[in-house]
Specification:
Blueprint: H1 8-11, H2 15-29, E1 33-38, H3 43-46, E2 51-53, H4 55-63, E3 70-74, H5 77-86, E4 92-94, H6 110-123, E5 128-133, H7 138-146, E6 150-152, H8 157-167, E7 170-174, H9 177-186, E8 196-197, H10 208-212, E9 216-219, H11 231-240, E10 245-248, H12 254-259, E11 262-263, H13 266-275, E12 281-285, H14 288-297, E13 302-305, H15 321-332, H16 344-363
Parallel strand pairs: 1-2, 1-3, 3-4, 5-6, 5-7, 7-9, 8-9, 10-11, 10-12, 12-13
Helix pairs in contact: 2-15, 4-5, 7-16
Bound molecules: iron/sulfur cluster (SF4).
């Protein structure tokens, strides 16, 4: 994805000028515009969001705002794709900086997944159901739709995996090995039943027998932010702050989630922290912008990241106020820049996998 080169008339503005111009552009666009802010987005940008949330909640929310002609998604590429898939044809989705991608989503390319599917179907017996995490490209969601599978979020992954295990002999779980492993283990599967598929190795790097005995084949993908948290960090934070509670996102490594007191999606983390009694101490394993915001908004609780560096989602960070302003001012002028448009056939198949997820969630 190409990085947008901004004109000097935008890059030379100071912070106050940027804020004023963003506010003015928003006002001109009125109800024709919605700005979506993912929880991991930087403060200078999220303050302009009409709504904050995780990617699926934001895409659904925008699709229901029928008067919104423009949906500016301050998130990453796959999130904007999901918004386009769920929105009406007249709604145009804009990503302020086209280079705001997701390292995890980029780890599963369609041709690699198709090769894996052919190989798995050849060497194993029984039915395989593909499940992809929301954090994947539209083409991967469409693949799951075409092959009788579903999408899942970090909140509904247990329900979706249970559904698939009841109907099939094994799951191909894409693209986050950690979410797949953490969820499968919580559902009672053994680690040996969940081999990892490395797309750069013959048969994913597994003997046929291992694949045949598997219940979940985990794609070798990960989030570069959450994978940085290590068991050592949990041990250090516990010894420094006796009594601290550790909460980790399920995109974290298995060993970290096992050591944590709690694990769950961003929405679950927010709920746990905000509903805990005043004075509770928390070490949080997720992206640093969300942790910092939780710290500021909950002064009556002690909240810190699990590790000292506090890793940021560097690609989401590319959506800065300058790119937001540039995309909004172009919309004011009637030019739609950085539009994310998913091919109609891909979108139709991806919707099948998304609808399957919604159906499973509704049954819970
Ligand atoms: S935090 Fe990780 S999974 Fe989420 S958008 Fe960034 S790289 Fe992707």
């Amino acid at each position: 994805m190409l990085q947008t080169i901004l004109p000097e008339r935008v890059t030379r503005l100071n912070d106050n000028e940027l804020d004023d111009r963003i506010r003015a552009a928003r006002e001109k666009l009125g109800r024709r515009l919605v700005i979506l802010g993912h929880h991991y987005q930087r403060d200078e940008v999220i303050k302009f969001a009409d709504v904050r949330g995780d990617s699926f909640k934001l895409a659904q929310w925008a699709a229901n705002r029928k008067e919104a002609e423009y949906i500016v998604f301050c998130g990453v590429h796959f999130m904007a794709e999901s918004a386009d898939i769920l929105s009406a044809d007249y709604q145009k989705v804009v990503l302020p900086d086209m280079s705001a991608g997701c390292s995890m989503a980029d780890m599963a390319a369609l041709d690699q997944v198709e090769t894996c599917w052919e190989d798995l179907s050849r060497v194993t017996t029984g039915k395989i159901i593909p499940i992809t995490y929301m954090n994947s490209a539209a083409s991967i969601k469409a693949f799951c739709g075409r092959h009788g599978g579903a999408v899942c979020t970090s909140s509904n992954a247990p329900a979706v995996m249970r559904w698939a295990l009841e109907r099939g002999d094994r799951i191909l779980f894409l693209p986050d090995q950690h979410l797949g492993r953490n969820t499968g283990y919580a559902l009672g599967l053994r680690l040996e039943e969940m081999p990892v598929w490395d797309p750069y190795e013959e048969l994913g790097g597994n003997p046929e027998e291992v694949l045949n005995n598997s219940r979940v084949v985990l794609w070798k993908g990960h989030c570069s932010v959450h994978q940085r948290f290590l068991p050592l960090h949990v041990a250090q934070v516990r010894s420094r702050y006796p009594g601290i509670r550790v909460i980790a996102h399920p995109e974290c490594r298995f060993e970290v989630v096992q050591l944590a007191d709690e694990s769950g999606s961003t929405e679950h983390i927010i709920k746990c922290l905000t509903q805990s009694p005043a004075g509770t101490k928390w070490a949080v394993g997720t992206e640093i912008h969300l942790v910092n915001r939780l710290m500021k908004e909950n002064p009556e609780r002690f909240i810190i990241p699990i590790d000292d560096c506090g890793c940021l989602c560097s690609t989401m960070f590319r959506n800065d106020p300058q790119h937001l302003l540039w995309s909004l001012e172009n919309l004011v002028e009637g030019r739609v820049v950085n539009q994310i448009k998913v091919d109609s056939e891909v979108a139709a198949n991806a919707r099948i996998a998304l609808s399957q997820m919604l159906e499973i969630s509704a049954r819970k």
